[in-house]
Known about the structure:
Elements: E1 6-17, E2 20-31, E3 35-39, H1 46-53, E4 59-66, E5 69-70, H2 76-82, E6 84-87, H3 99-104, H4 116-122, H5 124-128, H6 139-151, E7 157-161, H7 169-184, E8 188-192, H8 196-202, E9 205-210, E10 213-219, H9 227-234
Parallel strand pairs: 3-8, 3-9, 6-7, 7-8
Antiparallel strand pairs: 1-2, 1-4, 4-5, 9-10
Amino acid sequence: MPEAAALLGVRALNAWYGESHILHGVDFDVAAGEVVTLLGRNGAGKTTTLKAVMGMVPRRRGSVRFAGQELIGKPSNQIARQGIAFCPEERGIFASLDVRENLLLPPAVRAGGFTLEQVFELFPNLRERLRSQGSKLSGGEQQMLAIGRILRTGARLLLLDEPTEGLAPVIVQQIGRTISRLKAEGFTILLVEQNFRFASRVADRHYVIENGRVVDMIPNAELESRLHEVHEYLGV
């Protein structure tokens, strides 16, 4: 993809946790309106890549350009105001707050965020659990709440880390439908996902990360014909 077409362009991205050098020159692009996944084994650097884009690692170097603006050197709160939101694997739900309080907690950083009613239309379960504390929610409900919360911020690029991890198949299907709907509404999504079968149903392209480097890009149309390579990459 030509760099000019990219909403998010990452070049030579390096990242460290203390003395540990995790990312070693990551390169990839995400076009506006795309769903792109990062595939790879555990420890390959997928989550660190999302956090590095978001400015949530102690040290990073390289280039992360979003909508033409360089993000390297900016703190995560400024990056959020550019229109990027991160939904972590652990979901970050506040156990003592109810669903409504969790949804209202993050501030809107840009105009155009979802209203509470739009979140409930997307996830009807949350309306029914409106006064339930975060600690009382199922894993699927917590994931819906985590996604609904970032939609309220007005972000148009969503970074989703393992959104289907540990969820029942029926909830995985609902998350898949949600991602497809958000794409249809113009959102751009960068997704870390171990379940490549799920990824194949929602994504346009897949980048494979090994040892902190992008080693391959697989268009979704080629995924089935290259399953043997994917299995080798993922160790399955």
